[in-house]
Design a protein that fits this description.
heterodimer; A: 165 residues; alpha+beta; Arc Repressor Mutant, subunit A; Glutaredoxin; B: 783 residues; Ubiquitin-like (UB roll); Alpha-Beta Plaits; Rossmann fold; binds iron/sulfur cluster; binds FE2/S2 (inorganic) cluster
């Protein structure tokens, strides 16, 4: 179903047109579509819900239902860089909790908070699959490993510079 | 599928391969507990109550998702299984409020039963319970979140069964909640299926909540009084000062033609019976021109005297009778007998909502061609021509959806409107609103009749290839068009038909001869020999006036009396009140309708929930109506007619052949809370009649119907047990119907309206006025 008006970029819209044809039933495209939409829009807005519902052929409340199930899908805008600190077992044993506390202090925000300048968001997350290099942190889609509070500061500094560009 | 053999608790069982273990066990009488499993809905495996031990499998397995296999050995109850179930109950109870003493579900709650069985009465959870106040989602649906056990039944029945998808689950884990589609309210069909299916008291009904407890009511299984589907419903009733009131409508025993289903009307719209405008005293127009309450005795005397006088001075032709679409078969039959044998007139008619006469003529001598409502649940292919079942026949729509979902039945829809059932259709075409007849002709092979496209051509092709087809058609088709459609259908290998009309007993009204030209069973009035013999008097042989002609005659001063039972033609046909100013008008009704307001005598009548008898749904399924409720002051239409006849000086025994020599009912057809039997006994003794059987006994009349109308001669026992029996429509002895006037006027009700009756249901009115209904009624229909 080509949607006449779209809130997405032409590329993403084209991708979605294809996506719904890849599965035996359209609604299987729901979760990947939400993820891609979140990458482009930044979060799952009401408008995203409406268009995705239309595209996969379900009602909006069904989309909300799926959306609310997944903690990685969000319904509020967040900072430019989403700092996700793992505190699961391996990272915890190698200082993940301390790292998270450090980030909180450094950024002045708590779990799921966003800095006033909109550059950083912070999140405590479950295992991100980088246990061999614990403690690990994921910023958006990039990984930073074997961190200490000091190296963490550097990482944050790099991103702050990036944000200024 | 081939059978497999397996063992459950040491018992050897067989079942078709692919059967779910839980179902196979239930069939063998072994009950496995289940919260989330519900027959015919998708599998959820959320509650883990159904766990059983299966040999050679490492862990306990859920019986609701395991299919039986050859040699499987199952233990359904053991310490291990009990322990596991107990733990699940304990988990569920972790945040469950201690509401049982006030909860609607208390006494019929599956969680109570499970707690009782598995005894999780101590909790190791010490966390404070999360409370949320009860929420109102619509006039009829309330939600009490903490009571919810997250079985997802409501979500599935709304999505899969109703195809409405109004409910969903938000969040996950312990924070999961059932959420309505509009945030804090519903936009849906308001059917209440979600409430019915909820195993606990989380979803509750706007009419019933906090009113009583299940064990304080009597439960009477009877037939819904609204549309032509005739769903079986269970009314919860209890005695009150002025009779017996209905507190709940639900679908307790799912054995009826409607399966699990009831729509908003069947479930909630019984409250018209308690409407404040309900008449409970006979009214007679006084010399000052106003209606005033009088005694029954006086009203009946007055009416009888007046009718006798008019009959004796001006003849039966000066009297007209209009019957009802909502009275029992026995009452409709009795009314025509009264008209023809006592008043001496064939001026009798009713509001016709479908052309059953033409349908009967088309099916004559064609055994097994009329579809029962049940057939729609199993037919391989269905063609729907006209009508909008979702609005006009909700029960039928449910059966069709269920069949498409479970059996992949092929549905074809040809309609001039965008009806909701198109969503289930394999193929559909849009017709012009006046294009049905030509489309039928086109289906039959007449290419010139309909300007078709490729789409219509392929539509026709697939239909003609169907080996077995069920055709349901709406009132868009009448007269000759019905004949043409049946002819087309019969050219296919195996076709059944259903003629869709409105109201609970429209079909019965036609079948029972509420027609000016046809006797019961569609026998022409000119061929009344058998009837005359049975009635012991000659019957008028000339066809009488139809409904429209009666009002014309009244306007011209040719109709001296008009007797109307349970109908509101003045509003429905837009009759000018002045047309009736010189006509003696008698009306039997529950309310002072537009018609009753013009009457000289108004008798307060009982409704279908307050009487016994039979009704015939639009598919020709005959069902037993049982008396559920009662209202002091009112009488059944049956009783009123018998009393009038008696006072007119005619012999009630001739009208109702009760007493010696008939098979009749000794009370089994009456409801639990009747009082009727006692009233009869008093009347009988006072009138020196034998008190064994009563002149108000509908089954005495049903005997006569079965003798004279072969189509109705179905086995009696099954009917008395509360099961539906399909008519033998092929036995109808109808002559040609060519040249009959087309008087069909469809009711055009939608899901939330029910003719004049619906206007007296406060709940329906509230629902219609709310923002929560999915399909807005274009206009409120009038009867
Ligand atoms: S009442 Fe509404 S929410 Fe409940 S099952 Fe019916 S349509 Fe769905
Ligand atoms: S509201 Fe009732 S039916 Fe729905 S999930 Fe909760 S307990 Fe089950
Ligand atoms: S579908 Fe018709 S018969 Fe069934 S409950 Fe609704 S109104 Fe009553
Ligand atoms: S535990 Fe932190 S990445 Fe696996
Ligand atoms: S009934 Fe089997 S898991 Fe709920």
């Amino acid at each position: 179903m080509a949607t006449e008006t779209t809130i997405f970029s032409p590329e993403l819209a084209a991708r979605f047109d294809k996506l719904v044809t890849l599965y035996p039933v359209r609604r299987s495209a729901l979760v990947p579509m939400l993820l891609y939409a979140q990458d482009e829009v930044g979060y799952i807005s009401k408008a995203v819900v409406a268009e995705v519902a239309r595209r996969v052929g379900v009602l909006e409340n069904d989309v909300v239902s799926v959306l609310s199930y997944y903690s990685m899908l969000r319904t509020q805008p967040i900072g430019k860089f989403n700092v996700q600190v793992c505190t699961n077992i391996c990272c915890m044993l190698r200082g993940g909790n301390e790292l998270f506390e450090h980030c909180k202090k450094r950024l002045g925000i708590g779990h799921k908070g966003t800095t006033a300048d909109g550059v950083f968001s912070l999140e405590e997350v479950e295992c991100i699959g980088a246990c061999s290099w614990a403690p690990a942190v994921q910023v958006n889609y990039d990984f930073h490993e074997n961190l200490t509070p000091e190296s963490m500061d550097k990482v944050l500094e790099e991103y702050r510079e990036k944000a200024q560009k | 599928m081939a059978d497999v053999t397996f063992t459950v608790d040491g018992k050897k069982l067989t079942a078709p391969a692919g059967t779910l273990l839980i179902e196979a066990c239930r069939k063998a009488g072994i009950e496995i507990p289940a919260f989330c499993y519900y027959p015919n809905l998708s599998l959820q495996a959320a509650c883990r109550m159904c766990v059983v031990r299966i040999e050679k499998m490492p862990k306990l397995q859920t019986a609701c998702t395991t299919v039986v296999t050859e040699g499987m050995a199952v233990t359904t109850e053991s310490d291990e299984v009990k322990q596991s179930r107990k733990a699940m109950v304990e988990l569920v109870l972790g945040n469950h409020p201690l509401d049982c003493p006030v909860c609607d579900a208390g006494g019929e709650c599956e969680l109570q039963d499970m707690t009782f069985t598995y005894g999780a009465h101590e909790s190791r959870y010490v966390e404070i319970k999360q409370h949320r106040d009860e929420q109102q989602w619509s006039p009829v649906v309330f939600f009490d979140r903490p009571r919810c056990i997250m079985c997802y039944r409501c979500v599935r029945v709304c999505a899969e069964g109703m195809d409405v998808w109004a409910l969903a689950v938000d969040n996950r884990g312990v924070s999961s909640v059932i959420a309505p589609n509009e945030g804090d309210s519903l936009l849906c069909e308001q059917c209440g299926m979600c409430i019915d299916i909820c195993p606990v008291g989380a979803l509750t009904s706007g009419t019933y909540r906090y009113k009583t407890r299940p064990w304080e009511m009597n439960h009477v299984g009877t037939i819904c009084t609204h549309c032509g589907d005739g769903c079986k419903t269970t009314l919860g009733v209890r005695p009150v000062n002025d009779g017996v009131e209905i507190i709940r409508g639900d679908n307790r025993d799912k054995s009826g033609i409607n399966g699990d289903f009831l729509c908003v009307k069947g479930r909630y719209a019984f409250d018209f019976a308690h409407h404040e405008g309900r008449l409970t005293k006979p009214l007679v127009r006084q010399t000052d021109g106003k209606l005033a309450p009088v005694s029954w005795e006086h009203a009946i005397d007055f009416t009888a005297k007046k009718l006798r006088e008019i009959r004796d001075t001006r003849g039966g032709n000066a009297i007209g009778v209009i019957g009802s679409n909502r009275t029992t078969n026995e009452e409709a039959y009795l009314l025509q007998k009264f008209a023809r044998s006592v008043l001496g007139t064939n001026n009798i008619d009713h509001h016709r909502t479908a052309d059953y006469t033409a349908f009967a003529a088309a099916l004559k001598d064609k055994p097994g061609r009329e579809a029962s409502l049940r057939d729609f649940a199993s037919a391989r292919a269905i063609l729907l021509l006209g009508n909008d079942p979702t609005n006009q026949h909700p029960g039928l729509a449910w059966q069709i959806r269920t069949n498409v979902r479970l059996n992949r039945a092929r549905l074809y829809v040809a309609n001039h409107e965008d009806v909701r059932l198109r969503r289930q259709a394999r193929a559909s075409v849009i017709l012009p609103s006046d294009g049905y007849a030509s489309f039928v002709s086109y289906l039959g092979g007449n290419d010139g009749a309909f300007r078709g496209s490729d789409l219509t051509a392929s539509f026709r092709d697939v239909i003609r290839k169907e080996e077995s087809l069920l055709i349901a058609f709406g009132s868009e088709l009448r007269g000759r068009d019905i004949q043409a459609l049946v002819d087309f259908g019969l050219s296919l290998p195996n076709t059944k038909f259903a003629c869709l009309g409105d109201y609970v007993n429209s079909r019965g009204a036609a079948d029972m001869g509420l027609l000016p030209d046809l006797l019961p069973g569609y026998i022409p009035v000119s061929a009344s020999t058998q009837f005359a013999e049975e009635y012991g008097s000659a019957l008028p042989a000339q066809a009488g006036l139809d409904l429209i002609q009666m009002f014309d005659a009244a306007g011209q001063g040719d109709l001296a009396a008009l007797y109307i039972v349970g109908a509101n033609p003045v509003s429905r046909y837009g009759i000018d009140p002045s047309a009736l100013k010189n006509t003696f008008l008698v009306v039997q009704d529950m309310f002072l309708t537009e018609t009753a307001a013009l009457a000289d005598v108004v008798f307060p009548a009982a409704n279908l929930y307050e009487k016994a008898g039979t009704v015939t749904n639009t598919y020709g399924d005959l069902q037993l109506v049982k008396k559920a409720s009662d209202r002091a002051g009112v009488r059944t239409d049956f009783e009123i007619v018998v009393r009038v006849v008696d006072k007119m000086g005619a012999d009630p025994k001739k009208l109702v052949p009760f007493g010696k020599g008939v098979r009749a009912d000794f009370g089994q057809s009456r409801g639990a809370e009747t009082g009727e039997a006692d009233r009869h006994a008093v009347w009988l003794v006072a009138n020196h009649l034998e008190p064994k059987l009563s002149p108000f006994d509908p089954f005495a009349v049903f005997d006569e119907i079965q003798r004279l109308v072969p189509a109705y001669n179905v086995p009696r026992l099954n009917l008395l047990l509360g099961n539906d029996e399909h008519l033998k429509s092929e036995l109808v002895q109808i002559e040609s119907v060519a040249g009959r006037r087309d008087l069909v006027l469809p009711a055009n009700d939608v899901l939330y309206t029910s003719g004049t009756l619906g206007r007296y249901s406060a709940k329906l009115e509230e629902v219609v006025a709310s923002a929560t209904i999915l399909m807005k009624p274009a206009e409120t229909a009038a009867d």
